[in-house]
Design brief:
By secondary structure, the protein is an alpha/beta fold. Helices cover 35% and strands 28% of the residues.
Length: 324
């Protein structure tokens, strides 16, 4: 079992603490929170050992789970890696691209592993259909949330849209060519609603919309590729797949047949992939343990977390250009 220490005991940190304590892959040695009052309250309520000295926690752990505000991600990760510890770090990987790239250097220098908490990769709906998304050429995503003051210290792109950025980069095998975006601040000092259009070198186009001032919650992505339409509902954990194939010479009475302008006939049929429900946060943490034990590449590596951050920051920079 890997000895793990958690940095941060906020809303998400407490979820990590519970799942790590339950996991057979880890031995939870304790947690650190800079707010001593909160740390002691969490310890008294749930029984997790509160370690008041950050250096002591890092020293005793094999893995450091960083669930702190984004602004402190780099300092926490740097201290852990310099002590030879593996790191699990919540998204976004860091506050700046320079910090993320420095973590990549530290990872190589100290021979440790790192994984970024892009939890939607472990969403059971996405996992059920991931291998069927082969060459999407148009992608549309909507990630809408009701207003919650938690997380408004960063733009909606880093708060919400970055989930979809990571998913898109994981399925599009091409470099980003161009980004156009706009964002509007409604309640917060940073943009609360944003739209981005990402064009890739292979011709794929992704249109992303994120809002944290919506009247309803929605987390849907639609992937269009040759002969297939795939819809993933990350919130409801559902998948819809519509495919087309050459129509049989003698269609059945209930077959759905379309004929295009060239006279070609296609049959439409539906697929319903099996979805194996899971706890996505538990899976991402245990997958990281497996990567450490088996010396394999983490499913969401620091490199991939850096790529997602780079695109997110390009989108934010596009806001500034359109505001001029």
């Amino acid at each position: 079992m890997l000895k793990v220490g958690v940095l941060g005991a906020g809303h998400l940190g407490k979820i990590h603490l519970r799942l790590l304590q339950e996991s057979p892959e880890y031995e939870l040695i304790g947690f650190y929170d800079p707010d001593a009052i909160n740390g002691k309250q969490v310890s008294e309520e749930f029984g997790y050992p509160y370690i008041e000295n950050l250096n002591k926690l890092i020293e005793e752990a094999d893995v450091v789970d960083i669930v702190t505000p984004t602004l402190s991600h780099f300092d926490c990760a740097k201290k852990a890696m310099e002590n030879g510890k593996h790191i699990f770090i919540e998204k976004p990987i860091t506050n700046t691209l320079e910090e993320a790239e420095e973590l990549l250097n530290l990872q190589e220098r100290y021979g440790v592993k790192g994984q970024v908490g892009h939890v939607e990769r472990f969403n059971p709906a996405f996992m059920a259909i991931r291998e069927s998304i082969t060459n999407p050429m148009f992608i549309e995503t909507h990630r809408l949330a009701e207003f919650n003051p938690r997380g408004t210290d960063v733009p909606v792109v880093l708060d919400l849209m970055i989930h979809d950025i990571d998913i898109i980069l994981s399925v599009v095998n091409s470099e980003v060519k161009q980004i156009n975006a706009s964002g509007v601040s409604v309640i917060s000092k940073s943009p609360d609603i944003a739209n981005a259009r990402i064009e890739f070198e292979n011709g794929c186009v992704a249109n992303l919309t994120s809002s944290r001032i919506s009247l309803k919650n929605m987390r849907k992505s639609r992937f269009f590729q040759r002969d297939a339409y795939i819809s993933v509902d990350f919130l409801e954990k559902k998948v819809e797949v519509v495919r087309m194939k050459d129509a049989p010479e003698e269609p059945g009475a209930f077959d759905m047949i379309l004929q295009n302008a060239e006279g070609e006939k296609k049959q439409i049929y539906f697929e319903n992939p099996d979805i194996n429900m899971n706890n996505a946060i538990k899976d991402e943490l245990e997958t990281f343990a497996n990567a450490i034990n088996e010396d394999t590449k983490p499913l969401v590596s620091l490199e991939e977390g850096t790529k997602a951050l780079r695109v997110a920051l390009q989108i934010i920079n596009s806001f500034e250009k359109t505001a001029v």
